[in-house]
Design a protein that fits this description.
- It is a single chain.
- This protein has one domain (4-103).
- It is built from four helices and two strands.
- It has helices at residues 4-27, 36-45, 49-65, 74-79; strands at residues 91-92, 97-98.
- It has a two-stranded antiparallel sheet.
- It is globular and about 45 Å long.
- Residues 107-116 have low confidence and may be disordered.
Length: 116
């Protein structure tokens, strides 16, 4: 994504995914400040069998959404806060300005658990 509009749309999409994640955890009676991935990782660590398979599903989804740039255990990354915050403000209400597109998406590193 090299165009300015693409960066804004990409950031908007990441913000929307984060909204769905936190809202989903709220509706599942979880902490609205925690992601479903982190909550599932805690359940897996407690020995819940379903969580093992759901973490595999979430890892597959993360790889799919990132077009293959993310590999590894998504739940482990979420639980240990290894995933950098992808949610960013696009419009700053304090200064009433649109955020510089150079700061959107490009400076977010996608973790890769596979050593190469």
């Amino acid at each position: 994504m090299s165009c300015v509009v693409c960066k804004y749309v990409g950031q908007y999409f990441l913000n929307f995914l984060n909204l769905l994640d936190h809202t989903g955890n709220f509706f599942l009676l979880g902490d609205p400040n925690e992601t479903i991935s982190a909550r599932t990782a805690r359940a897996r660590a407690a020995g819940q069998i379903w969580a093992k398979y759901f973490c595999k599903f979430l890892s597959f989804g993360a790889e799919l959404v990132s077009f293959g740039s993310f590999t590894g255990d998504h739940c482990d990354y979420a639980l240990n806060d290894k995933i950098l915050p992808n949610s960013r403000e696009i419009w700053d209400w304090n200064t009433n300005t649109i955020i510089d597109p150079a700061t959107i998406i490009d400076d977010v590193e996608i973790p890769n658990a596979d050593p190469q």
